[in-house]
Fold biotin--[biotin carboxyl-carrier protein] ligase.
Amino acid sequence: MTPRDAADANDNRWSDLDRPPLNGAALRRALVRDGGLWCDVEVVERTGSTNTDLAAVVTGEKGADEGAVLVAEEQNAGRGRLDRRWTAPARSGLFFSVVLKPAPVPVERWGWLPLLTGVAVATALSRSAGVDTALKWPNDLLVTVDGEERKAGGILAERAGNDAVVVGVGINVSLRTDELPVPGAGSLALAGATTTDRDTVLRAVLRSLEEWYGRWRDAGGDPVASGLQEAYAAGCATLGRDVRAELPGDRTVVGEAVALDGDGRLVIATADGAREPVGAGDVVHLRPA
C-alpha cells in the first residue's frame, strides 16, 4: 500500500482544534518494527469503508501483506454487522481495518477473531483512556454514560480471498451529545475518558490486538489455551442476562445467556430447559445489567 497521510493532504485539517488529524508517519514509526505484526499504517482523509478498501487490495492483483492497517479520518459508507451504517463526524473517532492471515490456525477457529478483537480493544481502552468497556456479544463495545449502557464502538470481520480476514473497528472517541446518531450511542468522551487523543488510543489498540492475536495464533487458535475464552467471558455484558436472539430465517430465541462455547457461540438457556448455541444473529439485552 502507498502511504497517503491525511495530515499532509487536508488543508482544512485544523478546522476543529479539539480534533487534530492523525499523523501516519508517526504511527508507522511507533508501530511498524522488525518481527512485529504491523507492516504498514496508512491514513486517508476519507473513504467509503476501510473494510471494503482493504478487502479489494487483498483480493487484487498485488494483494496485501498480513499486518496492513488502513485508517480513515472519516467514513461515509462504514458498515457494521447486518450491513448497518456507521457514520460520524470527521476525526471524531477511530475507523480502521487490518489484514490478518491466520494460516496456522484451523479455519473453524477463525470465528474467534471478532471476539479476540473485542477483548483487545476493551483492554486497550481501559489502559489508555481509563474507560471500562464491556463487550456485547458478538461485536459491540459498550461504555457507561450517566449510569446508562451505551454503544461506543463495533467490530466487523470479513473473509477476503482464501487466506485472509479483514477486521474493521469503529470507536466513537470525542463524539458530543448533539452529534450522537441514535439515543443509545455513546463515546469515550461522554464516558469520562482520561484522554481523547486518538493517536494514543490507536497505538494502544493496535499493540493490544497484536498481543492477543499472537497469543491466540501461537496456541493454534485454541480459545482456552490462549486465555481468550476466559477473557471474553469476564468482560462480556451479555452473559447472565435475559436476551432475545433474532436469527437468520426469521427465527427468534429468548432466554438467559449462560455461557460462551468453544466455538465462540453464545449459549442461551430457554424457558423449556433447552440450551441453544447461537453463532450468528442480532442479540438484544432484555434485562438491565
Summary: The domain at 24-234 is CATH 3.30.930.10 (BirA Bifunctional Protein; domain 2).
